[in-house]
Amino acid sequence: MRALVWNGVNDLSVETVDDPQLLNPNDVIVQVTLTTTCGSDLHFIDGYLPGMREGDVFGHEFMGRIVEVGRDVTRRAVGERVVVPSFIACNRCWYCEHDLYSLCDTTNPNAALQQPILGSPTGGIYGYTHPFGGYAGSHAQFIRVPFGDTNCFAVPDFVTDEQALFMSDAVPTGYMGADFCDIAAGDTVAVWGAGGVGLMAARSALLHGAGKVISIDRIPERLTLAERLGAETIDYSAEDSVEDLLREATGGRGPDAVIDAVGMEGHGTGVQQLYDRAKQLARLETDRATSLRQAIHACRKGGVVSVLGVYGLTDKFPMGVLMNKGLTLRTAQQHGQRYIPQFFDYVEQGDLDPALLITHDLPLEDGVRAYDMFKNKSDGCIRVVLRP
């Protein structure tokens, strides 16, 4: 089959690789209909996350049709159209039983690679470094899905392929970020980052009852889409102080909750950004955490800081601000299996249309070009759909 593979830092290619096989009786094989670029991929493409090997197939956000099932699969069948969460869950361990699916104790066969860094392993994830399981990714014609009964969700007829695609990762990640905020009716929520996840976090905050959502970014097409989804916007590159604007918008208090949907390769202005960029280039830290620091400073006293961005080693973390303001910090990789069924209802009711994220639609053979556009935000790119 054809697949998009990682060969080294900023070195991608589309190659012919082996087709996946059923390895366990609970596996299914999915023929990938749609897969998409994700900002998390840029972290290992750019060399900030270790653990990729030459020839690894990457990609973790996808939907498709089941073409083969293992003998122990009972709830899914060949021919079903399905969406698959990016993190792999077993539905049997303590964490899965408590709806903490991305923390699954079963699905990461390379737990020993993670334990020295994280203390305990996460669940496995498709196409996202060997410490996260070493699974082949979704930028391919076919993919093996372990625990098919748990991880494949049948897509109703009224949901399009394009809508279902983002229920794999961008929608549940953004929705979880809003869920973490404990939003009360009328609350103000500020969201740093208006990429796919940030846009879905902004929309999800409104679905949770927020009275006002403010999206913060610098890319015009992202800010325009955030407004279409119901948010107010701030172009941080055109303002002296985002924090001052947020205080003005909230009677001097600051937002009730803040969501960081940026992560380790964030952009910003001023001396701190130059400092972070220099240390990151020298590999003295992995993170340009401008948005995270800014969100913590901006949040009102007693509020919630919800972190969705992927981080590694962050310098100058404002722990004193977090503690003295009585803030609650909540973060996780997404627990998609908890949330996906309700997204179908939102689509049917007309409250959610994830397909709005798509700006480019390309064949998988153009995968290298897709990531170049996505990384450099050229041609108005927000998300590229790849069709194997």
From TrEMBL:
Coiled-coil segments on the chain, per record: none
Keyword list, A-Z: Metal-binding, Oxidoreductase, Zinc
Name of protein: Glutathione-dependent formaldehyde dehydrogenase
InterPro entries per the UniProt record, alphabetical: ADH-like_C (IPR013149), ADH-like_N (IPR013154), ADH_Zn_CS (IPR002328), GroES-like_sf (IPR011032), NAD(P)-bd_dom_sf (IPR036291)
Cofactor(s) listed: Zn(2+)
Native source organism of the sequence: Mycolicibacterium murale
Alcohol dehydrogenase-like N-terminal domain boundaries: 25-156
Family of this protein: Belongs to the zinc-containing alcohol dehydrogenase family.
Domain annotation Alcohol dehydrogenase-like C-terminal: ranges: 196-263
